[in-house]
Design goal:
This protein has an eight-stranded mixed β-sheet with strand order 3-4-2-5-1-6-7-8, with helices on both faces. The protein is of the alpha/beta class. Helix 1 crosses helix 11. The two termini are 18 Å apart. It has one domain: Rossmann fold (3-Layer(aba) Sandwich). The structure holds adenosine-5'-triphosphate and magnesium ion (MG). Adenosine-5'-triphosphate binds next to helix 1, strand 7 and helix 10.
């Protein structure tokens, strides 16, 4: 099962991604955590020490490997063999395998199609059996979606705060995800403080689109002020994220059963 997590800046993607990862690892899944954010936030949220994180070269900066796999000519292979890249560059932390993609390189005269194809090949090479899961923290905004690395994910969770601007971005992302062929786009409200905010979210989406509404948790803010990053969710937030994880697993198994029958 491959899950991507997206949404406007600061809505709680990394917090929710790391919580999903912890929950799924705790349930015995072998989890690949893919950080598509330019900084090291997912690793930090998972509790990986900074020295280890900063030691890991982002995939996009593996110039020699990219050149070896993709060649240097004008044309490059669409399906390069990259299965060894995972073993060599994934950081193992308590059984969770962490990969950092590195910053989106785009725009200007340079084309990073080759690099982006390489990243996509690495993500595609994660061909999974039923006990393996990939959770990708896509970082903020929509640039990452144009990389194509999210193509082929089974489900995308789009996180939104209860504000019109956050919801608008969530819907733009959801639409793009649909255009990329991602069938299951699910919205999750986060940092909801009042009934009014909850109703605003419920009214913003079609029935069934909004999977969960997570409350604003004062303790989490405190924790991140002290620790300098996202902190593990507790209480209701953790419970609801666990429920989301279980629902994703159930849906993915039901989908797999339909496909094989
Ligand atoms: N339900 C919540 N209640 C309170 N604080 C929260 C909640 N969810 C996330 N936060 C806090 O909001 C901040 C941003 O969260 P996080 O880093 O997960 O967002 P993000 O979407 O990954 O941000 P970015 O776009 O910068 O990657 C963090 O300080 C985090 O602890
Ligand atoms: Mg983040």
């Amino acid at each position: 099962m491959k899950i991507a997590i997206s949404g406007k800046g600061g809505v709680g993607k990394t917090t929710i991604a790391s919580d999903l990862i912890r929950h799924l690892a705790g349930r015995g899944f072998s989890v690949y955590a893919v950080d598509a954010d330019p900084d090291v936030s997912l690793g930090t949220a998972l509790g990986v020490p900074d020295e280890e994180l900063l030691d890991q070269t982002p995939l996009i900066d593996l110039k020699e490997v990219i050149s070896e796999k993709m060649g240097d000519g004008a044309l490059y292979p669409l399906n390069p063999r990259v299965d060894d890249v995972l073993d060599r560059y994934a950081l193992d932390f308590k059984g969770i395998k962490l990969l950092r993609m590195g910053g989106v390189k785009a725009g200007g005269a340079a084309c990073y199609c080759r690099e982006n194809s390489f990243l996509k090949a690495v993500v595609d090479s994660l061909v999974l059996d039923r006990d393996e899961v990939v959770v990708m923290d896509m970082g903020a905004g929509i640039e990452h979606l144009t990389r194509g690395t999210a193509r082929g994910v089974d489900a995308m969770l789009v996180i939104t705060e209860p504000t019109p601007i956050s919801v608008r971005t969530a819907k733009v992302i959801g639409k793009l995800a649909g255009e990329l062929g991602i069938e299951r786009v699910r919205y999750v409200g986060n940092k909801v403080r009042t009934d009014r905010e909850r109703r605003f979210l419920e009214e913003s989406f079609a029935p069934g689109e909004l999977w969960a509404v997570l409350p604003y948790d004062e303790e989490m803010l405190e924790g991140s002020l002290e620790g300098g990053g996202s902190t593990p969710a507790k209480g209701q937030v953790a419970e609801r994220v666990a429920a989301i994880a279980d629902r994703l697993v159930a849906e993915s198994r039901a989908g797999a059963a339909t496909k094989s029958s």
